[in-house]
């Protein structure tokens, strides 16, 4: 199955009156999306269009799709803000129905933000991979990156497969026993393999954190609470080192439970949303 990501074109903050465009996606962040997903969809709209670096080339190469959400009628004040903030969710609402591709909604930063009508407050399990995913810096030519992606598709597929295994094991056993799970060592090996081939091919790479918000149903909570397994876990979570890669950077996995706003159209999926942050360090 192919992997698809629906991303926001940038970081947009709601203000008491209107919105603030903090920034658009960086070239490095675009390289991250393109490398780790088969399909990259970044919606735009006909009210306020947020462009991307190298946008024309990215679309021409097939690396990125930019569907446009069309709004009709007159928009003022918060109506404009709500429309702009809803574009990612509007497109994602339809794409997550497609079972031929594993679609995820993805944002930058520490917390997901979803507009009214698309958000749902619920308990989740959050898995954070810190300093884990190698990404070539933005000065790498897009066609070179796509060629590398094709040549190393086995390593990239392995990473996604081991991430899926880890998510499933977290959902089925969110407790300290996770430390002994084979999924941890398998994931560490796949990250190390990908890190090796990436640094072997590219002169400069950086690191990205990756966080996944996983569905935790009421049934999961009641079963875990009855056994006592999830009570302590909900209170403390856990952090484990999974590999030491690329010299000084330590890769860790952190698992915790929390209540947060999630993407309601994905409420029946195991993966509700993804987040990422780029590390400032550049490895040469």
Automatic annotation (TrEMBL):
<protein>
    <submittedName>
        <fullName>DUF6236 family protein</fullName>
    </submittedName>
</protein>
<dbReference type="InterPro" id="IPR046203">
    <property type="entry name" value="DUF6236"/>
</dbReference>
<dbReference type="Pfam" id="PF19749">
    <property type="entry name" value="DUF6236"/>
</dbReference>
């Amino acid at each position: 199955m192919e992997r698809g990501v629906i991303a926001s074109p940038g970081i947009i903050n709601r203000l008491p009156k209107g919105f603030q465009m903090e920034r658009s996606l960086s070239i490095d962040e675009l390289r991250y999306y393109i490398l780790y997903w088969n399909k990259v969809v970044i919606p735009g709209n006909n009210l306020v269009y947020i462009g991307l670096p190298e946008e024309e080339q990215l679309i021409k190469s097939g690396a990125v799709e930019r569907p446009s959400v069309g709004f009709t009628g007159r928009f003022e004040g918060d109506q404009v803000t709500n429309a702009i903030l809803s574009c990612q969710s509007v497109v994602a609402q339809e794409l997550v129905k497609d079972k031929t591709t594993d679609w995820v909604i993805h944002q930058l930063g520490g917390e997901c933000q979803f507009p009214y009508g698309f958000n749902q407050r619920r308990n989740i399990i959050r898995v954070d991979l810190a300093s884990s995913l190698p990404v070539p810096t933005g000065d790498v030519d897009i066609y070179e990156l796509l060629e590398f992606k094709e040549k190393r598709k086995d390593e990239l597929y392995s990473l996604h497969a081991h991430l899926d295994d880890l998510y499933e094991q977290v959902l089925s056993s969110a407790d300290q026993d996770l430390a002994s799970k084979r999924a941890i060592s398998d994931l560490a090996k796949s990250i190390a393999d990908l890190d090796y081939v990436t640094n072997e091919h590219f002169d400069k790479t950086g690191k990205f954190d990756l966080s996944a918000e996983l569905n935790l149903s009421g049934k999961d909570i009641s079963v875990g609470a009855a056994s006592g397994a999830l009570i302590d876990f909900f209170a403390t979570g856990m952090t484990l080192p999974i590999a030491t890669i690329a010299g000084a950077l330590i890769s860790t996995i952190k698992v915790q439970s929390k209540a947060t706003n999630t993407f309601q159209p994905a409420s029946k999926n195991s993966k509700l949303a993804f987040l990422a942050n780029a590390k400032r360090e550049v490895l040469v």
